[in-house]
Amino acid sequence: MTRALVVGEAVLDVVHAAGGEKGVEAGSGPGSEPSARPGGSAVNTAVALARLGRGVDLATAYAADAAGTVLDEHLAAARVHLAGEPHVLASTPRAVAHIDASGAASYDFEVAWALPAGVLAEPAPHVLHVTSLAPLLAPGADDVAELVAQLRGRTTVSYDVNLRPAITGTGVAVVEAVRRTAGLADLVKASDEDLAALWPGDDVGASAARLLELGPAAVVVTHGDAGASWHSRCGEDWCTGGVPGVPVRVVDTIGAGDTFSAALLDHLWPLLGAGGADRVARLDADGWAEALRYAVRVAAVTVSRLGADPPTRAEVDAAYPPD
């Protein structure tokens, strides 16, 4: 079985949810107890890929504490294989999420990151997906850069910017680290909020072009409930387009972007592997629209449920029957 290697942080999401018509359901309004759920960008993406039926190895870091046990059990249940011993931190990172009445999440973080020992570049995975803090937060960032360098050209490298300004800030060093990682990637995904934080005042197209100029075959941008767009190298020219969002009752947005990343990789899976950049670059407008429509739908199932709870392929097909 071809497998993905996902690299990035694990956290325990502690969710304080608001009530209201669009908020989460009974028992989660003001005065209710917060819920604690396994999460983190890499964990969410790995679980989403596994639930869609892909083989997944996860390189992440947390502690051998009670929260770490929750993560252990969550990953085992999803059949995500751990690439290296994850218990390398003194305490498991936490993300305290505050959900407003619209379902949007804001976060406070207690996060550390280190790449565990024993993450091997042999054999090369079908895709290497690097996300969020992994290329930005010391001490693990340098190890991640070395791993990407070892695998670049031997697999498809995917990078989800998923910026966390509350942890890293948005200064020159962060922008340069994002640029460096994007320049090593074949496929870059970012949200419109990520791009606005990196380059305030630029529109989405201009910011996506900044990333595309660094060398990836394509940049995909999510726009919340407005859908998603692609910006791609189409032969010698660049092409762009987008798809709308789908109607959905939003419970919360936790894990939506991570699920979108997983679904995009799942849909593009036949194009990935060694030489994937060239195949992705040749994808035409119809191919991109199909890929993004699928990713938007999979993410929509996640936002309709409490916490980062990505769907299985059967659940996606039930919610959005194939045409």
Automatic annotation (TrEMBL):
It holds the Pfam family PfkB. Residues 1-311 form the Carbohydrate kinase PfkB domain. InterPro entries: Carboh/pur_kinase_PfkB_CS, PfkB_Carbo_kinase, PfkB_dom, Ribokinase-like. Transmembrane segments: none annotated. Keywords: ATP-binding, Kinase, Nucleotide-binding, Transferase. GO terms for molecular function: ATP binding; kinase activity. The keyword Metal-binding does not apply. PROSITE patterns: PFKB_KINASES_2 (PS00584). Belongs to the carbohydrate kinase PfkB family. This is Carbohydrate kinase.
